[in-house]
Amino acid sequence: LALDSALRRAVEQDELYVVYQPKVDANGRPFGFEALVRWDSAEFGSVSPVRFIPLAEENGLIGQVTWFVLREACHQAAAWRAAGNPKLRVAVNISPSLFREKDLAALVMSVLEEAGLPPENLELEITEGMLMGDVQRALAVLDELKAMGVYIAVDDFGTGYSSLAYLKRFPIDILKVDRSFVIECDCGNEGLAITRAVVSLAHSLNLRVVAEGVEKQTQLAVLNALGCQEFQGYLFAKPMPAAALEAYLANPTIAG
Ligand code: G
Ligand code: G
Ligand code: MN
Ligand code: NA
Question: Membrane-crossing residues (predicted)?
Answer without folding.
Answer: none
